[in-house]
Design goal:
alpha/beta; globular; 9-stranded mixed beta sheet; 11 helices
Length: about 325
Amino acid sequence: MNRKFLVVPVMAILACSGTGSADQLSSWTDGAAKSAIIDFVDRVTDPAHTDYRPVDERVAVFDNDGTLWAEQPMYFQLVYALDRVRALAPEYPEWADTDPFRAVIADDREAIATFGMPELMAIIGATHSGMTIPDFRATSRAWLDSARHPRFDRLYRELTYQPMVELLHYLRDNDFQVWIVSGGGIEFLRAIAEEAYGVPPEQVIGSSAQAEYRDDDGRPRIMKLPQLGSINDKEGKPVNINLHIGRKPILAFGNSDGDFAMLEYTTTGIMTTSSASGPMTATHTSAGWIGGSARRRFVAGWWCRWRGILGWFFRDSEWGSVVSDSGVGATHASPLR
């Protein structure tokens, strides 16, 4: 989840016509990146093309934070966890004198900015455990339905990137199976993924805590525990892709070094001797803000892996619009420039 690097959303091109229309990508600037996406989809869905892939092989994986929705000034799930500390504080008066909870309750932003993994795990453990899965999803969904971004005064759940939402729909209409593979919490994302992206909960992979099955007086439940289970970041992403999907993707999107292993995994060991095409990679940076006068830089490239790596790499603004004016999935979006 380290977002210091600009790294790629990958489209592993093994790569005419699917059922989805290129007109669905209306928020994308007509240019090389959009053309490369359409060309890739056309080739892998054309039974007459050497790059054709059957439907069961059309697996696309997407990072979430900074790729599908915004991640500034901090990850949305972290904002949720901090808000939960404040909401639960009356039940735990000892937190007022115990770090890291003291800093959160006092809104000591300088102290919060210094939090490392131990402090974050203490906060996550206290706010994400001791409840059933449905209870956690309900609590997180209530927050997503009410909490507003401090700069944009919009619900956090509305701050999805319109071009990427369009891309998800476009791929599904071309018989791709779309998965979210995020460093964020799996149950937090499952609370919103279907409404925000059309991705059902069973196609969400994320970091997770340990859980246990309990049968309390004939009421079977799965309880969330404070202990960490799996961190779905960096090298953990391809491991969990194999665990949950059982098939290597042909398309992957991300925006940071935390996604590199997933992208590398997608783009290696998949070529056949009949194909001279290789992975196409595309990413947008996580720096900057969305909406209004914000600029999001989109980077796209094509690596031709055929007896070596050749090809071209370019960088340009490829999104004509960024975030919708009227909420998740709206067709009208704010201008990029």
